[in-house]
């Protein structure tokens, strides 16, 4: 259902707020679990191209089974749909693998601090590539976002260039993904859940050959033996958990995108990062200096100012 239908159906404002609140809480919780297992896997098994492929494969499989068994209704799609989806999938694939490569090199919290700068990328892309202009306060809000991210980056104890660039590339790719998918979902009969399912399947097809070329089965097999011998059989469950939770958090986020504006979505996404940053610092005992935390706080605050300025 699109927004106007939901409004026409007329659930009360309060009921709608509760529903969106539940979506958000579920999205963040699933994302925290994904981030923890993803990092546990990457620490023992540093093959981000494979783990990001497995996440997409697991989601694709879950959805194909759901469609085949009737748990979810399969979408009716035509060639035009898949053509429009292709640029979204290219951006999703690049953004996903870049973020995973980043997290294999640096602390999860660092990747997400840099990723909290996504609104700045959104404004710059809209301004310079799409020629959109914004009110002055929007541009001003970029100062704390960019400044805060820069401060957090230069004071990061475990700074690594690949880790930094991966998060930056992910930001840029996801801005394009959001622009393209907003267009693709508009006026489309495919629900958020099925839209994300199709996105996973197409992204999986795109990513697989690159994952084989960059890492490949030989490396994967050798690394797998090492990880299994170090961690024990539960390593397999970590891989399963990171893959299943990756799909679930993205599915819920696309389901909520059906019902909220892109702006509300990006605010929700930033708040999600706060929960990931805080929980991963606690769980992985990530060392943080006060000035480093200050940079992160300024960047996140900047994102809130940005959302206020955009409203
Ligand atoms: C990924 O692996 O795709 C990243 O963790 C995505 O990060 P995000 O969904 O939090 O932007």
UniProtKB/TrEMBL annotation:
The keyword Chaperone does not apply. The chain crosses the membrane at residues 20-37, 49-68, 136-155, 161-180, 192-214, 226-249. It comes from the Eukaryota. One of its GO terms (cellular component) is chloroplast membrane. It is found in: Plastid, Chloroplast membrane. Its main location: plastid. Signal peptide: none annotated. The keyword Ion transport does not apply. Residues 19-307 form the Sugar phosphate transporter domain. Keywords: Chloroplast, Membrane, Plastid, Transit peptide, Transmembrane, Transmembrane helix, Transport. One of its GO terms (molecular function) is phosphoglycerate transmembrane transporter activity. It is a multi-pass membrane protein. This is Sugar phosphate transporter domain-containing protein. It comes from Arachis hypogaea.
């Amino acid at each position: 259902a699109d927004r106007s239908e939901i409004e026409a159906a007329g659930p009360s404002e309060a009921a709608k707020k509760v529903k969106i609140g539940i979506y958000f809480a579920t999205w963040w919780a699933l994302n925290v679990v994904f981030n923890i297992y993803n990092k546990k896997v990457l620490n023992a098994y540093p093959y981000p191209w494979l783990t990001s492929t497995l996440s997409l494969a697991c989601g694709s499989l879950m959805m194909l089974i759901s469609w085949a068994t009737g748990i979810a209704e399969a979408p009716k799609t035509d060639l035009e749909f898949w053509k429009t989806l292709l640029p979204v999938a290219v951006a999703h694939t690049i953004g996903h693998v870049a973020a995973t490569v980043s997290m294999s090199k640096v602390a999860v919290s660092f990747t997400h601090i840099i990723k909290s700068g996504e609104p700045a990328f959104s404004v710059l892309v809209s301004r310079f590539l799409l020629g959109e202009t914004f009110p002055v306060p929007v541009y001003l809000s970029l100062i704390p976002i960019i400044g805060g991210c820069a401060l957090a980056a230069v004071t990061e104890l475990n700074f690594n260039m690949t880790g930094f660039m991966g998060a930056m590339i992910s930001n840029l790719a996801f801005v394009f993904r959001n622009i393209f998918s907003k267009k693709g979902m508009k006026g489309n009969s495919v629900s958020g859940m099925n839209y994300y399912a199709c996105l996973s399947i197409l992204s999986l097809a795109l990513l697989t050959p690159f994952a084989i070329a960059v890492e490949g089965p030989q490396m994967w097999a050798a690394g797998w033996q090492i990880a299994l011998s170090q961690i024990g059989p539960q390593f397999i469950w970590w891989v399963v958990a990171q893959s299943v939770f990756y799909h679930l958090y993205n599915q819920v986020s696309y389901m909520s995108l059906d019902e909220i504006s892109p702006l509300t979505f990006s605010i929700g996404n930033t708040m999600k990062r706060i929960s990931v940053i805080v929980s991963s610092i606690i769980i992985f005992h990530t060392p943080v200096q006060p000035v480093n935390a200050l940079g992160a706080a300024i960047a996140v605050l900047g994102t809130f100012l940005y959302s206020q300025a955009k409203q």
